Amino acid sequence: MKKHNFSAGPCILPQSVLKKAAEAVLNFDGLDLSLIEISHRSKQFVAVMERAQELALEHLGLQNKGYKALFLQGGASMEFLMVAYNLLEKKAGYLDTGTWSAKSIKEAKLFGEIDVIASSKDSNYNQIPKGYTIPSGLDYLHCTSNNTIFGTQMNDFPEVDCPLICDMSSDIFSRVLDFTKFDLIYAGAQKNMGPAGTTLIIIKEEILGKVSRVIPSMLDYKVHISKDSMFNTPAVFPVYVSMLTLEWLKEQGGVAAIEKINNKKADLLYSEIDRNPLFKGFVANKEDRSKMNATFTLENETLKETFDAMCAEAGINGLNGHRSVGGYRASIYNAMPLESVQVLVDVMQELEKKA
Question: How far apart are CA 142 and CA 92, in angstroms?
Fold first, then answer.
């Protein structure tokens, strides 16, 4: 029986997706060839790429609205660089809400002036900043929707007079938003979409071509759009698994349907964290809690060995928190079944009885 996988990423994927992906590695599309040994320019894989792009736009409600979907390589870390390379001419604004936003700020500073509009660094990123003012005249504003390490999530996005850029690596396709508010969204596949190795970029074409610098071809969004994500050999297997996951999401009823399930999972776990005197949530304000990554600690660290042993006995995997926070982190992405969250809650309640 498969373990209850709470890993933060690479993370859990739907079992039906894993089965189809495994079959394709042996024999793809009845070709008697493996998916990972056919040409990326074959009609079979071109169809995969086109379907993955189509589904990504469909799930976000961005078809026929001037957006393109790209599947590139280098993870979100490459996008920290590419966003600034393609869009930063004079000054950009950034919201600093966690480790990954801080890394994006570091990269962007190589290309121009960066205004850190708001930051929660002083509180070890245990909240989402509020009450900030965004200056006019920015080339773009960058934010991170969900902070995997610290367990915070943005629920309100600012109104801006410039392109709005968002790193949605750890909560894309998990909830309904007005995605037309964003001009560029990027997300590493390895949270809610597929295995590590490809990155989804959703970009409004009209924001491109406005910087004076010469952009190397490999880092130029316009080049990748013109080549349909095949300027270089794409990550064939991760793109295929991403397509399968997006198909699975459609079968579940799409983003609106999965959001309801995600809310049930998060409510179940956070209710236990708040009720059980042995545990304490890391995030300062309940309204800032992530629906994807629940971070919490034991009030009494002497119980850690017992709790860890109980989790292992129950088949719970990947629960340890990041070193920046300590404690525990339960990542409850789209493919995590409600039953697995219930197993964790049961263990937490059993620990309370033993303590």
Answer: 8
* pLDDT tens track for 101-134: 999 999 999 999 999 999 999 999 999 999 999 9
Q: What is the pLDDT of residue 1?
A: 74
Give the pLDDT of residue 74.
Answer: 97
Core vs surface per residue 116-135: b (16+ CB within 10 A) or e? ebbbbeeeebbbbbeeeebe
Determine if residue 74 is left, alpha or beta; phi over 0 gives left, psi from -120 to 50 gives alpha, anything else beta: left
Encoded tokens for 299: 């009030």
Q: Which helix (H) or strand (E) holds 88?
A: none
Pairing of strands 199-204, 293-298: unpaired
CA distance linking residue 53 with residue 240, whole number of Å: 11
Catalytic residue ranges: 100, 167, 191
**pLDDT tens digits, one per residue of 34-54:** 999 999 999 999 999 999 999
Identify the helix (H) or strand (E) that includes residue 288. none
- Classify residue 106 by its DSSP letter: H
Tell me the one-letter amino acid at 152.
Answer: T
Distance (Å, whole) CA 5 – CA 15: 12
- Angle, helices 236-252 vs 43-60, to 10°: value is 40
Amino acid at 320: N
Q: What is the DSSP string of 130-187?
A: -S--PPSS-S-EEEESEETTTTEE-------SS-EEEE-TTTTTSS---GGG-SEEEE
Q: Are strands 4-5 and 184-188 parallel, antiparallel or unpaired?
A: unpaired
